[in-house]
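FW: tagging you since you asked about this chain on Friday. Here's the raw sequence from the shared folder, copied in full. Didn't touch anything.
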Amino acid sequence: MALDDFQQFLTAIESAGELVRIKHPVSVHLELCEIADRVSKRPGGGQALLFEHPVLRDGTKASMPVLINAFGSYRRMALSLGVDDLDEIGRRITQMMDLKVPDGFLSKLSLLPRLLEIAKFPPRMKSGSAPCQEVVWKGKDIDLDKLPILTCWPEDGGPYITLTAVTSKDPKRGIRNVGMYRVQQLGKDTVAMHWQRHKVGAAHWREMAERGEKMPVCIIVGADPASVFSASAPLPPNIDEFLFAGFLRKEPVKLVKALTCDLDVPWDAEIVIEGEIDPSEALVVEGPFGDHTGFYSEADLYPKVHVKAVTMKKNAVYGTTIVGRPPMEDFYLGHATERIFLPLLKLTTPEIVDYHMPAEGIFHNLVFVSIDKQYPGHAYKVMNALWGAGLMSLAKVLVVVDKEVNVRNPQEAWWIALNNIDPERDTRFTMGPVDVLDHASRAFTYGSKMGIDATRKWPEEGFTRNWPKIIEMDEATKRRVDAMWPKLGLGDGR
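HL: got it, structure written out here
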């Protein structure tokens, strides 16, 4: 069943026993984040936290509760997208991509159910009084200080809105983009928009600036969970994130026109901040910011957004997240991306069996890839393919192993890799784009990458020695020991 809004997600989390309500007053300045950080680092990601009495920076009580770590476990991430297993979505994508037109009338009729399912995905515009516009701040009523915007880390440049879905529109083609960008509060009615140069929102801004036109943006806080995830997903620029959210939900996302600009926002969003960027205005200092690398990202210059309106539900819940030293909530959002987009990687590189980005690698620093090796040098072919695939181009280290290796278990993957490599023979270096947040690269957004071929080596690859077998007990002995294990007094034998 699709979760229509953020509060339905909250209810579902609580029904699943995954929510803790905190009644004690907690400040949005550092305190709330320290609590969330400790909880998110518990095994399995800890619980979601609803702070019922957050305290604003001026010491007054906020008018709305704060929900954090909502996506911060495998179970809650699957719950947010209405599945028991995130791989279910990958299998749906595989089926959609396998829409080969068959011969014969009856066979063609068999495609109709899947074609009709696709037709249900596009978002639906609604008119009238939307829940997200029950309360409206305009003009002198705009005061972002009244929102429980968090200051997460001691050296952050200010309070930050973090769990966002920021909408913009391509001025040439009118194609919408929805991205998850951090937003720094500058004042009561101004914010700084942090969109990295390779993000679609930044491309829209550059185009608008060249035209000398003001750029409308809407910062959505607390959309339905499928839309929140879609905003973070590495979709191609021509794919509407709300369309993808509809696919995930199996129901269209309901949209309504913003009040001050020609952008669409989710009908049931908790809060919408409508703003405008003036290209003639100088960029402003944004940051520093305690980032998902576990280090502070440096301050830099980004566009200023002038807030034209703030709209919200009467009983709004402020959804947010924090990032920092992993593992944290963002790991589970990234894990969903990993599972859901595996079929798309296989579409262009079918020899890929599986891949995994461990938490410590903070997405772009380390990727394990298992492949069905078919010929000498196959691992390097896969490396080059991945470095040419969208945001996978930012991957700093790729480790390629054979198909039977469980890459979702980093201990196993490293054990195999470190045993299988001759460092000089099996390591390759190349240059290319790197993540904006990579503080170790030789230049901003440009640096080196490393590929490690940890597959079994073939004679054609210059390996003439015997490749050893992995030590394993025989199945008959395992079964006998399984049968006697309860009598041994050793606890769980698995």
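FW: Residues 6-320 form a domain with the Pnp Oxidase; Chain A fold (CATH 2.30.110.10).
HL: agreed, and The chain has two domains: 6-320, 349-461.
FW: great, closing this out.
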